[in-house]
Design brief:
The complex is a heterodimer of chains A (about 110) and B (about 110). Chain A is mainly beta and about 110 residues long. Chain A is built from no helices and 11 strands. Chain A is globular, with a radius of gyration of 13 Å. Classes of the chains: A mainly beta (about 110), B mainly beta (about 110).
Chain lengths: ~110, ~110
């Protein structure tokens, strides 16, 4: 059974600071996904990456996929209060269920 | 179409009672997933459907849990003889095909007292 470990579990930083959160898998990702979940809502897909070494940018968010396709990082530049939420990494196999990590709970202080 | 709809949003029930949740997926989405999420955890897979066929059930899904998707449209998740450990957020998601983006509903928060 694939296990996804995310670190840190919690992160509280001041608005304007930069941060990085990590995701490591016990096996090679089929298709790595990052989601953000706000309180009382379901997860919302941010990005999907499939190629080892791939880097994707979404405004102030930069997603990096490890060369061996077993790890990933999410970097946020100049964090804003609107970035607050639970960040989940997941594996999305082509014909199977989505497997989620436990998430990093991010709180941006104004 | 406003996305995946789940009802009710909140449910409080006494231990031992049965509860049923409903999920209406995005129109024409063939895949439908159920997940459970407890505080501080990521979503845990429960079961999923391809149209009306239930393809997989997690070991987490004891015999007290049953899910259906009649006619491949909406889905229901029933929990019989609820226990306090069943308290969680139950999330439903749908996708057009097996490898397209999954969209999640807002969830049903169950509290067993």
């Amino acid at each position: 059974t694939q296990l996804l470990e995310q670190s840190p579990q919690f992160l509280s930083i001041q608005e304007g600071e930069n941060l990085t959160v990590y995701c490591n898998s016990s096996s090679v990702f089929s298709s790595l996904q990052w989601y953000r979940q706000e309180p009382g809502e379901g997860p919302v897909l941010l990005v999907t990456v499939v190629t080892g070494g791939e880097v994707k940018k979404l405004k102030r968010l930069t997603f990096q996929f490890g060369d061996a396709r077993k790890d990933s990082s999410l970097h946020i530049t100049a964090a804003q209060p609107g970035d607050t939420g639970l960040y989940l990494c997941a594996d999305r196999p082509r014909d199977d269920k989505i497997i989620f990590g436990k998430g990093t709970r991010l709180h941006i202080l104004p | 179409d406003t996305g995946v709809s789940q009802n009710p949003r909140h449910k409080i029930t006494k231990r031992g009672q049965n509860v049923t949740f409903r999920c209406d997926p995005i129109s024409e989405h063939n895949r439908l997933y159920w997940y459970r999420q407890t505080l501080g955890q990521g979503p845990e897979f429960l079961t999923y459907f391809q149209n009306e066929a239930q393809l997989e059930k997690s070991r987490l899904l004891s015999d007290r849990f049953s899910a259906e998707r009649p006619k491949g449209s909406f889905s229901t998740l029933e929990i019989q003889r609820t226990e306090q450990g069943d308290s969680a957020m139950y999330l439903c998601a749908s996708s057009l095909t097996r490898d397209t983006e999954a969209f999640f509903g807002q969830g049903t928060r169950l509290t067993v007292v």
